[in-house]
Structures are given as C-alpha cells and as structure tokens.
Amino acid sequence: MIVNDKNQNDIMNQKLINSFEIDYIFGNKPINRYKNKPTIENIQQRLESLKKKILNISNCDLKNNSKQIVFNDGNLASQIMMVGEGPGQKEDELGKPFVGDAGQLLNKMLNAININRENIYITNVVNYRPPNNRKPEPAEINRYSEFLREHISIIDPKILILMGSTAMESLFGSKIKISQVRGIWKELIINNKTYLTMITFHPAYLLRQADQKKYSWTDLKEIRKQIDKLKLKV
Questions:
Q1: How confident is the model over 9-20, as pLDDT tens digits?
Q2: Which residue blocks in 79-212 are alpha helix, DSSP H?
Q3: Are 147 and 53 in contact (CB under 8 A)?
Q4: Of residues 122, 111, 124, the one with CA closest to residue 217
Q5: Which of 50, 56, 128, 197 is 20 to 30 Å from the Cα of 95, by its Cα?
Q6: Strand residues in 28-117 grouped as ranges (E)
Q7: 163: Cβ–Cβ under 8 A, 6 or more apart, which residues?
Q8: Contact at 8 Å (CB) between 192 and 180?
Q9: What is the Cα 91 distance to its own chain's centre?
Q10: How many domains does the chain have?
Q11: Cα Rg of the chain (Å, integer)
C-alpha cells in the first residue's frame, strides 16, 4: 500500500502526541485566552449580598427613621457609576435614588450631554433617608463608606461621578473643599484598582444655588469628553 507524504506526516504527528500521554482535542475555533468581565448574574449576586449587609446593619438612626432601603438604580453593566448623598422623602417612598426634584434636574443634566439615565448606574453614600433630609453626619458617612467602596468594586466602572460634598467626603475625606476640586479628574484607589473620578455639585445644591449651574455645565462637558475619549457606550 502506498502512503502519501501528508498521511505519513499525520501518522508521525499523532505518534509524537501519543508519546506525551496527553489527550488533545483539536478544533477550528480560536482559544479565548482572556477572562470575561463578571456576568450580570454574578454582579447581581454580589449586589444582593451587599444589600443584605446594609439591611442587617444595627444601631443606625438613618435606618430606624426610614421607610425602606434605597439601594440602586440603572444598568448593572454600566461603565459609568454615579454616587449621590442619600435618599430624600420621595426616594424613601419609592425605594429608588434621584426620583424627586433633584432627580428631575439630574435627568436634564444627563440629557444635556446625550446620556440616557437608564444606561448608567446610580447609588448613594447612605442608603437610608436622614431625618428631616439633613446631611449625613461624619460618623454615618464613615460607616457607610465601607459599603460604598464595596459597591464600587462590584460595578467596576470606567468613570465614577461623585455628586456633592458628602460623596466626596466618603471617599476622599473632609479636608478638601468641593469648590476647589470639582471639575478635576482624580484617581480613587479601591482594592488596588484605580478609578477615574470626577467630583461635581449635587443637583439638590444647584436647585438652591442656581448661579452654580454654569460650573456644573463645565463639569458635564468634561465628563462627556472623557466618555468619548474612552469610547464608552452610554
């Protein structure tokens, strides 16, 4: 029987493979050598675990004086994460962040730079409404910042937007003033990972101080520029 060169080479190659006593499976599809981003199911599970931690918190005036937890809103897979201060009356009633007057202004601000709110991810520093809508106290900000850092790690955004001084203080401390650092890109490190962060005014503050809207507009345009630079989908 005549064996052509190709068949002879195939036989020799198979003998060589067999000599290593390793089972090989050949296919035409290329091997995916890159780890995929955590699935939505995995993100959801981690968020549920975090939510349970916050629900089980004890000795908290915020929790004791609220109707319910206000945990999140938006797209779990978003590359843009926004952090506000805490729930107001409307948010406490509906269980979602930024649904009151400040939320309506936020929607307009996002639309102004062609961002659909549904495409980003939103949470707050504290997840329960402060009594009489007061600002969270330093001890409360510090206590909830641990949960917030875990929250950020789970969502793992490309861009992090901090709305207001409370959000700023929870992650960068109280020694800086928002008027001095807003509009400047900063780097926030959580669990050895760096997050590109922009600090800007909270919409509720802008409702009280309309003359400051021009600075927020500058910040928004800078955020849009960075989104385009990174080619993020919003």
A1: 555 555 544 544
A2: 89-94, 101-112, 138-155, 165-172, 178-181, 203-208
A3: yes
A4: 111
A5: 197
A6: 73-74, 80-84
A7: 82, 83, 84, 85, 106, 200, 201, 202, 203
A8: no
A9: 19
A10: 1
A11: 25
Structure tokens at 38: 């955590």
Q: Which two tokens stand for residue 231?
A: 């080619």
- Nearest Cα neighbor of 196 from 165, 225, 164 is 225
> pLDDT digits over 84-132, tens only?
999 999 999 999 999 999 999 999 999 999 999 999 999 999 999 999 9
CA distance 207 to 191: 35
Residue 142 located in a structural domain: yes
CB 71 within 8 A of CB 57: no
Report the candidate in 110, 106, 113 with the shortest Cα–Cα distance to residue 207.
106
What residue numbers bound the domain in which 69 lies? 38-230
Q: 3-state class of 88 per DSSP?
A: coil
What DSSP state is assigned to residue 197? E
Asked if the structure places residue 10 within a domain, the reply is no
pTM: 0.83
Rounded to whole angstroms, the Cα distance separating 177 from 196 reads 19
Q: Is residue 136 part of a domain?
A: yes
Q: CA–CA distance from 98 to each of 3, 86, 127, 153 (Å)?
A: 76, 9, 12, 22
On whether residue 63 sits in a domain, the answer given is yes
Determine how many CB atoms are found less than 10 A away from the CB of residue 64.
10
Judge contact between 234 and 118, C-beta under 8 A.
no
Strands laid side by side in the 80-84 sheet: 73-74, 121-124, 80-84, 159-163, 193-200, 185-190
SS3 72: coil
